[in-house]
Amino acid sequence: MSLFLVFIGTFFSILNSSMVNVALPTIMIEFGIDIQSSTWLYTGYMLPYAIAMAIFGSLGDLYSPKRIFLLGVFIFAIGSLSCSIAGSFWMLLVSRTIQALGAAAVMTNSMILAITPFEQNQRSAVLGWWGMISSAGSLIGPTLGGVLTDHSGWHSIFYINLPFAAVILLLGGNYIPSPPKTNHTKIFDYRGSFYLIISLVALLLAIIIGSTSGWLTKTTLPLIGLFLLFAWLLFRQESRISQPLISLALLQNPSFAATVVVGFLQGAALFGSMLLIPMYLQHVHDFSPTYAGVLVLPLSISMMIMAPIMGKLATPPKIRLLIVSGMAILAIGIWIFSRLSLQSPYWLLAAALIATGIGLGVSSTPLTSNLINVVPQSQMGMASGLFNMIRYLGGVIGSTIFGAFIQQRVAAYIIPLTISGYTAPLAEKMALGRAFPEVFLMGAATAAIGMIAAFFTGTTKKMKNP
Q1: Which pLDDT does position 185 carry in this prediction?
Q2: Which residue spans traverse the membrane (predicted)?
């Protein structure tokens, strides 16, 4: 029952994110926003989601992963309810931020709760199943989101979270076990949390504004300065105290540091590319949200199949090889997307989706397994939060840069097409058809760099408890 409840929380936090991606084109029309503005709904979710992971991971170590997990479910439910009744773009954006905070608490602590009842040699297999559940959310999300958006409106994609959240909150207190407590007292690093939030918000706002308005503007430069100042304050704080929010000793472990770097590049390649696929299918090929959701099923199916298999194969001697292979396949899959055109047969799209899903499935579970093999139990929440924070920061940065890039390329292509005599709608479609392959090339290159970084992963000796 405990695994069932934890898996439900994991499933629905992933499900809702993937449903929203399919609904974005419809939301754009209703609120009259363009592609660049629509990425704020994605960034407005991913930014607090990423930042909060490190904080909720440390809070889980301090107050128990079970308590923080259940708190996250409650916050996620409140955010979902607020999203479902949102009547404006800004209300939806704020509601998505609330939802993201709950999802961060759920995801960071669900992995720890899933592996807690099992011995060390069984945990990779459990992580494989946990990865499969996450993939199932990605699998069902686009199709279900498309169906609900077409037939009940985009508001309905948020309703379905509420009954499942209620079940977890009612049963979780009795059925979800708490990990064993450590013997030493922990103190939460409030100052480090403040420095972390300010530095990352400044960094990501600088990237968002700089990618569209320029890097040397009067707005961007102060944000970069603010980031550097608070990043330095964070580093000084974490190096001076005995119980930091982010242990610098973790990053001194070469395998852990390489795992974090690969996670960042995987997140940038994945989320930057996957955010755009539903838009590509709907704007360029004129597919409905339902059909676009069905078309991307091969990605999630292949990832869901690979996750439990990798859970069994991800033993310490094989981890490096699996991560390198997965990132290579991911790069190939995203590269195939860059070869698509309006005349491309579906099998080519399916090949791109399947290769991308296999690459993610092969690399993701070994990355997570590597964490639990080198990090002591007392720092599992911190390590999980740090890894997931940086992975999703990669997603925020990737989606922001890719979104700004495609907007710029569309603007560059649409002017000569219009001058050539094409109507405005046709010129826009043709411009999008030319711009999307270029952004997918950026995603493939990012994954390829991640493959290089993956050579430095591989399990080293487990760190001692602090």
Answers
A1: 54
A2: 39-56, 68-92, 98-118, 125-145, 157-176, 188-209, 215-235, 256-277, 289-309, 321-340, 346-372, 392-415, 435-456
Closest Cα partner for 96 from 16, 150, 153?
16
* pLDDT for the residue numbered 376: 73
Instruction: Please report the pLDDT score of residue 239 as a whole number.
Output: 87
Q: Please tell me the predicted confidence (pLDDT) of residue 452.
A: 92
Give every residue of the chain whose pLDDT is below 50, as ranges: 183
pLDDT at 346: 78
Residue tagged 């945990």 (tokens): 123
Tokens of residue 234, six digits: 């964070």
3-state secondary structure the chain: CHHHHHHHHHHHHHHHHHHHHHHHHHHHHHHCCCHHHHHHHHHHHHHHHHHHHHHHHHHHHHHCHHHHHHHHHHHHHHHHHHHHCCCCHHHHHHHHHHHHHHHHHHHHHHHHHHHCCCCHHHHHHHHHHHHHHHHHHHHHHHHHHHHHHHHHCHHHHHCCHHHHHHHHHHHHHHHCCCCCCCCCCCCCCHHHHHHHHHHHHHHHHHHHHHHHHCCCCCCHHHHHHHHHHHHHHHHHHHHHCCCCCCCHHHHCCHHHHHHHHHHHHHHHHHHHHHCHHHHHHHHHCCCCHHHHHHHCHHHHHHHHHHHHHHHHHCCHHHHHHHHHHHHHHHHHHHHHHCCCCCCCCHHHHHHHHHHHHHHHHHHHHHHHHHHHHHCCHHHHHHHHHHHHHHHHHHHHHHHHHHHHHHHHHHHHHHHHHHHCCCCHHHHHHHHHHHHHHHHHHHHHHHHHHHHHHHCCCCCCCCCCCC
pLDDT for the residue 138? 65
pLDDT of residue 135: 65
Whose structure tokens read 């990737």?
398
What pLDDT, on the 0 to 100 scale, is given for residue 325?
Answer: 93
The pLDDT value recorded for residue 431 is 84
Entry pTM: 0.76
